[in-house]
Amino acid sequence: MIEKMTKYSFILMNEDKEKFIEQLSALGVMDITRAKKPMDERSTRIYAEALSIKQQMAELEAETSDELKSLQTKLAEARRRFADAQAWGEFSSESLEDLASKGVNVRFHRATLKKYDPSWAEKVALEVISEDKSAIYFATVTVPGEELPVAVAATEVAKPSESAVEAQSEIDALQAAADKELASIREAKEREVPRLKKLYDSRLNQLDRYFASSAAASAAEDKLTVLVGFAPCTEDGRLKAELDASDAFWMSEPAAEDDNPPIKLRNNWFSRKFECITGMYGMPVYGEFDPTPIISIFFLLFFAMCMGDAGYGIILLLFGIALNKKWVKIGMFDGLGTLIAFLGVATLVVGLVLGTAFGVNLTEVSWIPQGLKNIMLTGKFPGTDYDYPMVLSVLIGIVHLCLAMTVKAILYTKRFGFKETVSTWGWLLLILGGIAIVVLMLAGVLSAGALRIAIIAVGVVSALGIFIFNKPGRNPLINIGAGLWDTYQMVTGLLGDVLSYIRLYALGLAGGMLGGAFNTLGNMVLGDGGVGKWIAFVVILLIGHTLNLLMSGLGAFVHPLRLNFLEYFKNSGYEGMGAKYIPLDNNKENNN
Known about the structure:
This protein is α+β, with helices and mostly antiparallel strands. Helix content is 60%, strand content 10%.
């Protein structure tokens, strides 16, 4: 639910503004309206400092520096030269220069195994240095006036710049320097990152205060400042006592929707874990309905159906527990351990109901208790050719959409009045009434006469709301035209929305089939057994199910988001345009 807010208005002297902002920051609950975000010289300087600190943290986190990059580049080049020099064995560059000064010319050659001719050694002083799978490396020596035969001369390569020993010595020196630089960076990371993070939070808090201060309106020839802020109603007693002791003149009143107060959600221990899902779309405005309690239930159910595997549910549960216990630390999952554990439990339960664990059909496993098999929804839905999970997905979608339309009708009536929501109630009566009539008819509760009366009553009342009174006071012909257009959009839209929920069945089926395929592949490799085959069997299952878990997890996260953000929010009229409650708080600097 959305926590009720109190609106505070403050009037104070301009020279007291900064001191008063500091006092509000110490209270830690006042969100000052930030209608203006001036990027003037001061705010630009603070922002630049924060950005510089953030870049320093990023470099330390990446464990790199310009010096380390330079050393790594030089190291790669030295290794390349070492590879080139290895073919020429050990020699002294000084000796070669000495021979050259005396007129003795030493040349270096490379020839493929097919082209090398041993008879070359009879024509010139030639020494084979090394040989590999594809080529022979050799050197020739000539004296003044002596020329190489054309065939030999054609294979000449550049003189090596250094020997392998010299290249290796350089590699060792560069590697030692790189290791030393990396150790220095890691030491600085452990020492500096916490300090920089604290400094970064301080700069952001300073910027936040400045924006809050700059949002103040001046009055009385710039001698007075007017501030507007919001705080939860639960803090009224403490705030009023503190404000009475200040020098500011202040007034308070319950916040109204027109004030556009910031939004603070207040949910129970379970729904609170799903507030991050709501925040991904956008916070509700003050007069809206907090969708988090409904999202928490349906996102959990949708995720579990998309995964549809009890074995994967166990892994998610263990992973969530490991994150909470700090046994595993992965930045992108910080604070999500409990949510992942919830998703794991739901996936475990739904996987057992659907009869799948690690791609295995549990109904075919002999050691599974028959009582558990009896609750598994396998096979075809009675009276149809469709699988149980497919029909279940559509039915859940209908319930989800009907709930969305009910929320819309109630919320819009509360916000805008019944007169503005007649059409919405008409559609809700038609859909819910139609579903109720079908259910009662299938159950045999209604007689033929009662059924006829119910259909006529629901149809007539709904038609009046949709086509005649959808906008009371407007020309009836315009209302009828608007009703026809609304009918076209509703029919085509609802049909597409309902069919969208089949993805719950499709994703669960795809994940189960892929898991089963890896099991089959592993069994094919295993054959009659043997140590090597058992190792291959285990490797195939580990890699296969890890890939399947990751892909299924991604789909199970994205598609439930889509069903909630598009299908549910669209039909519930959710706007999600509210501003998040961000109070001024000195303790922000020390939160981490």
